[in-house]
Amino acid sequence: MSRTIDYGNLMHRAMRSLIQEVLEDVQKNGLPGEHHFFITFDTQHPDVDIADWLADRYPGEMTVVMQHWYDNLEVTDEGFGITLNFGDSPEPLYIPYDSIKTFVDPSVEFGLRFETQDDEDEIEEILEESELEAEEEAPQKDADVVSLDSFRK
Q: What is the tens place of the pLDDT at every residue in 64-119?
């Protein structure tokens, strides 16, 4: 049985840990300077908790902005809860890290994008194609045989 390193899962865990650490700092100290976040998440994730009217309005994914006004930020190891304002109507949300598709802080041009299984399959196909192209483009040549006698004086 062959064992492989699952770089995709390791990277996702590290990136989600980074988001958790950033949100924990914001929970304790508030958003510093011009920092603000655009967080896109899968509204169909089983552990997402949002109002029914938001789930109806955003049946696949939703992007929330954490900037000027937010309340009740509670960060856990699995996700975070926050109250955001939607047209002067405060709504509590719970967003598990596993549901996050993108996390962007445009104030410092920082962003994370989580690859889906489809994206990973596409990456694998690209890698396989590039390997095949490299093999096809590499000129096939016979080995050169060099006689040592030609170097003797």
A: 999 888 999 999 999 999 999 888 889 999 999 999 999 999 888 888 888 765 55
Maximum Cα–Cα distance across the chain: 93
Q: How far apart are the C-alpha atoms of 77 and 20, rounded to whole Å? A: 7
Considering the entire predicted model, what is its pTM?
A: 0.71
Give the count of beta carbons closer than 10 Å to the beta carbon of residue 145: 5
Tell me the pLDDT band of 121, cut-offs 50, 70 and 90.
low
Q: State the DSSP code for 129.
A: H
Q: Looking up tokens 């109507």, which residue turns up?
A: 89
pLDDT beyond 80 at 33: yes
CA dist list (Å): 62 to 55, 58, 66, 73, 119: 9, 6, 13, 18, 19
Count Cβ neighbours within 10 Å for each residue of 54-81 and write b for 16 or more, e otherwise.
beeebeeebebebeeebeebebeeebbe
CA distance 70 to 16: 21
Integer angstrom CA distances of residue 71 from 7, 81, 133, 135? 35, 9, 53, 56
